[in-house]
Amino acid sequence: MARVFRNFEELESFVKQERGKGRKIVFTNGCFDIVHAGHVDYLEKAKAFGDVLIVGINSDSSIKRIKGEKRPVVPQDYRVRVLLGLRAVDGVVVFDDDTPLEVIKLIKPDVLVKGADWPVEKIVGREYAGKVERVKFIYDISTSKIVNKIVEIYCGKKVED
Ligand SMILES: Nc1ncnc2c1ncn2[C@@H]1O[C@H](COP(=O)(O)OP(=O)(O)OP(=O)(O)O)[C@@H](O)[C@H]1O
Ligand SMILES: O=P(O)(O)O[C@@H]1O[C@H]([C@H](O)CO)[C@@H](O)[C@H](O)[C@@H]1O
């Protein structure tokens, strides 16, 4: 089963151990507030770029700063637990900064992956990765779309994007 790294030191020693076995380290990051089919698809494709997939997940306070006070809908411990249950994921680490730059600088992944909604020039940490991969969306879904649909259904209000 996948594991959660309690701190960056634990993560660093895991990465060193895996690299020692000749394994390719893939890293990606995100908020993963309400996990959906798009996340599952992109994480499986991310894993396929290497041998070990580590996912950096924003802390609750990080998400509040970057996505607004009303988010996240799902607390970080539950968001972590969902990712740990995904077949593609080997490890999860929570980061509290606005960006995963410090984690990426630490592990220098062989491959850094984001969904194709992120232009390369906006992918934080790209200069510390062996290469950067952007995964195209095959599902037209997002956490925001899910939230907005629920508000529309239950509150009869159209939420402005
Ligand atoms: N439909 C999708 N298909 C593939 N990848 C996706 C999809 N939606 C988001 N991603 C990717 O998942 C990662 C986490 O993104 P995030 O948690 O912001 O999801 P989101 O659904 O876009 O959430 P929000 O609507 O709150 O922005 C990012 O790398 C993003 O590019
Ligand atoms: O879930 P998101 O919004 O895709 O995740 C964010 O990604 C940002 C991205 O990596 C910038 O290149 C990152 O800075 C931010 O902390 C979220 O993880």
From TrEMBL:
Name of the molecule in the record: D-glycero-beta-D-manno-heptose 1-phosphate adenylyltransferase
GO molecular function annotations of the record: ATP binding; nucleotidyltransferase activity; phosphotransferase activity, alcohol group as acceptor
Keywords: ATP-binding, Carbohydrate metabolism, Nucleotide-binding, Nucleotidyltransferase, Transferase
Domain Cytidyltransferase-like per the UniProt entry, residue ranges: 27-146
Signal peptide: none
NCBIfam families on file: cyt_tran_rel, rfaE_dom_II
Biological process annotations from GO: carbohydrate metabolic process
EC numbers, comma separated: 2.7.7.70
InterPro entries cross-referenced by the UniProt entry: Archaeal_FAD_synthase, Cyt_trans-like, RfaE_dom_II, Rossmann-like_a/b/a_fold
Catalytic reaction annotation: D-glycero-beta-D-manno-heptose 1-phosphate + ATP + H(+) = ADP-D-glycero-beta-D-manno-heptose + diphosphate
